[in-house]
From TrEMBL:
Species assigned in the record: Piscinibacter gummiphilus
Annotated keywords: Signal
Stated name of the protein: Lipoprotein
UniProt signal peptide: 1-28
Amino acid sequence: MSTSSTRLRARGSIALAAIALVTGCATADAPGSGTGAKAAKPASADATAAMLVFAVPAPAGATAQGGLHETFAYSEKEGDARVDDVKVTDGVARITGTVWPQKGSTWAGIGFLATPGPAGKTSDLTAQRQLRLQLASPTATQLRLRVLGDDPATRASGCYPVATVAVGAALREVAVPLSAFRPEGYCEARGKLIASVLPAVAAIEVSDPTLSGSARRTVDFSVGRIAIGP
């Protein structure tokens, strides 16, 4: 299966996408909407102390932690998805794009990813138990998450573990157990279990992979602080 991908970015590079379902995710309100909303405050001082901030989007493709963020479009047939704009305000990246499978793509979407540091840096997250992200979308009810390692072949095959979370139009913090991440079924032996990825996490990805048949669809979602906690 061939994959075409176009990317909108200032610096850095990385990418790709897939699917799984999470139930019972905890959520907490973040002030404001997905456009220019400020990062939510954690529920308590103890939560702040225990939480590892993985990435907070900043302008020019950077993160507040010295990492990189990137937005990309992917589709089965070249040209069936595109990134239209990326704006970062007050630590929240708003990504807009268009998915229109005029050439017959059976999968396509728009994605965003952030790294824990400069290109090539990885983080050992084996002691952590949950991923906490600020997310919003006025056009989708679910977004897909992926925990990425640094193996090019696994990235190319889309076989790093994924989970899907419910989102709404207002920016909210969503907590997802890392144990809920699974590789897609089609990956079979190529799929990476989350336990094998956590010792060297290279990026966290958020994407909207929704297709509406052959209809043109506007993609609009926001990503704020990405954190990891026990």
